[in-house]
Amino acid sequence: MIYQSFAQLYDQLFDQKLYRRWLDFTLNCGQTVAGNKVLDLAGGAGRLAVMLAQRHYDVTVADFSSEMLSLANQHADEAGVNLKIIEADMRNLTNLPQYNLVTCYADSLNYLDDMVAVQMTFRQVYEHLTTDGIFLFDMISPYKTDVVYPGYMYNYEDEAHRHAFMWRSFMDDEVKHGVIHELAFFNRLSNGEYQRVGETHFERAYQLVELQTALDQVGFERIEVSSNFGQNKVTDKDERWFFKCQK
After folding, report:
1. What is the pLDDT of residue 165?
2. For the CA atoms of 5, 7, 13, 18, what is the dihedral angle to 10 degrees?
3. Is the sign of the CA dihedral 25, 226, 180, 183 positive or negative?
């Protein structure tokens, strides 16, 4: 019997095409930076970091989950690239050096508890960027949390790898623009039984003006916001925003 953790199953079933789109966004927005030092905040299993390292970037992956970082180390070894792996809270990057580029994708900032924590992270990133450094990140919008996610359901079955995945989302009545995700993986074992691994995730969104104000207050002077991985202008029905911020 082969038992797998939530992190392993999540990493296996995550849509790999999204990493390519984040990579393209990063390369397009980061082509003007002078150096190649990159910090991938909440970098998880290191899929994006490996792709950047393959393009000769000096990449550090920082994540709160030691299990995810173990997967990042594994993926780096498999790809034959070097990654610096750091277990860290994005709200406190003390003792880390400065970077030419900092990335934070997959709406990781939406997992922070409140705007205070978000702005704290913005400040930490600002202080760890070089003079011409760039901060790239995405966040889901209130339209996503208030309109798209409530009642959302997604089921997936992969017979080849003996996995099934169930995702349900609900509005969080106690948090403004909050949403609750119930995620469950079912892994079919060699004896025919199923292993269930589940987690509950909490996200919240913020108005665009709140985020822009917070970025401005910590010192960012050039803030560009777009949708669709930098391809479209912002509208009131965007599900996800993409930010490019410079000092």
Report:
1. 85
2. 180
3. negative
